[in-house]
TrEMBL record:
Name of the featured protein: Nucleoside triphosphate pyrophosphatase
Annotated localization: Cytoplasm
Database matches in PANTHER family: BIFUNCTIONAL DTTP/UTP PYROPHOSPHATASE/METHYLTRANSFERASE PROTEIN-RELATED, BIFUNCTIONAL DTTP_UTP PYROPHOSPHATASE_METHYLTRANSFERASE PROTEIN-RELATED
Catalytic activity from the UniProt record: a ribonucleoside 5'-triphosphate + H2O = a ribonucleoside 5'-phosphate + diphosphate + H(+); a 2'-deoxyribonucleoside 5'-triphosphate + H2O = a 2'-deoxyribonucleoside 5'-phosphate + diphosphate + H(+)
Top EC category: hydrolase
Example of a GO MF term: nucleoside triphosphate diphosphatase activity
Matches recorded under Pfam families: Maf
Keyword line: Cytoplasm, Hydrolase, Nucleotide metabolism
C-alpha cells in the first residue's frame, strides 16, 4: 500500500483528509513562503501561480525526504484588486485586513500538488470568489473579541466554517477550495493512484 503524507501543518487540511477517510501522516515542510513569493515578484506570476508554486515546493520538499511516499502539498492565496494578502501577524493587522475586505469581492486561489521521489507528478488549482458584506469597525471589534487569535491562522482573518460566515454576503466557489484544499480533484487523483477504491 502506498504511504501517503500531507506536507502541511494545517489542522483544517488534515481534518478534511481525515473526514474523507484517508489514512496519512503529517510532515510540515521547512519552506520559507515569503522568500519563495519574493522570487516570483516581477515574473508576471498571478495568485493562482503563486499558490501552485508554493504547493509544489511543499510537496516536493517533503517528498525528497520520503521518496517512496505520495506527498500532498497545498497552499492558498487571497487577492483583491491585484494585491495579495497573507495571514495577519497580529489582531491589529487582522482588524485592518477585514476592514479592507469589507463590502468587496476577493478571490481565493487554492492549489494542491502530489509529489513522488522529489518530483511533482500532479497539480491542480481552483478559485473561489467571495463577497464580504459591508461592515464597520464596531462589528470587526465584536468579531475579533469572539474569535481572538484564531483570526491569525488563516489568510483573510476568517474561518468560513465558524463565525467567519457572518462576514459574507455571497460566495461563488467550492467549499473545499475556500478551506484551502481542492478536495474533489485530489480524491480523483488518489483513485487514479490506487490509493482509494475506484
Amino acid at each position: 500500500m502506498t504511504r501517503l503524507i500531507l506536507a502541511s501543518g494545517s489542522a483544517t487540511r488534515a481534518s478534511l483528509l481525515t473526514q474523507a477517510g484517508l489514512i496519512f501522516e503529517r510532515r510540515a515542510p521547512d519552506v520559507d513562503e515569503r522568500t519563495i513569493e519574493a522570487t516570483l515578484e516581477g515574473t508576471g506570476a498571478g495568485p493562482d501561480d503563486v499558490a501552485q508554486v508554493l504547493a509544489d515546493v511543499k510537496a516536493s520538499e517533503v517528498s525528497r525526504l520520503h521518496p517512496e511516499a505520495l506527498v500532498i502539498g497545498a497552499d492558498q492565496t487571497l487577492s483583491l484588486d491585484g494585491v495579495r494578502f497573507h495571514k495577519p501577524a497580529d489582531l491589529a493587522a487582522a482588524r485592518q485586513q477585514l476592514l479592507d475586505l469589507s463590502g468587496r469581492i476577493h478571490t481565493l486561489s487554492s492549489a494542491v500538488a502530489c509529489a513522488r521521489g522529489g518530483e511533482v507528478v500532479w497539480r491542480h488549482v481552483s478559485q473561489a470568489h467571495l463577497t464580504m458584506r459591508p461592515f464597520g469597525p464596531a462589528f470587526v471589534r465584536h468579531y475579533l473579541s469572539i474569535v481572538g487569535e484564531r483570526a491569525l491562522t488563516s489568510v483573510g482573518a476568517y474561518q468560513l466554517e465558524g463565525m467567519g460566515i457572518q462576514l459574507f454576503e455571497e460566495i461563488d466557489g467550492d467549499y473545499f477550495t475556500i478551506l484551502g484544499l481542492p478536495l474533489l480533484p485530489l480524491l480523483g487523483r488518489l483513485r487514479e493512484e490506487g490509493i482509494l477504491e475506484p
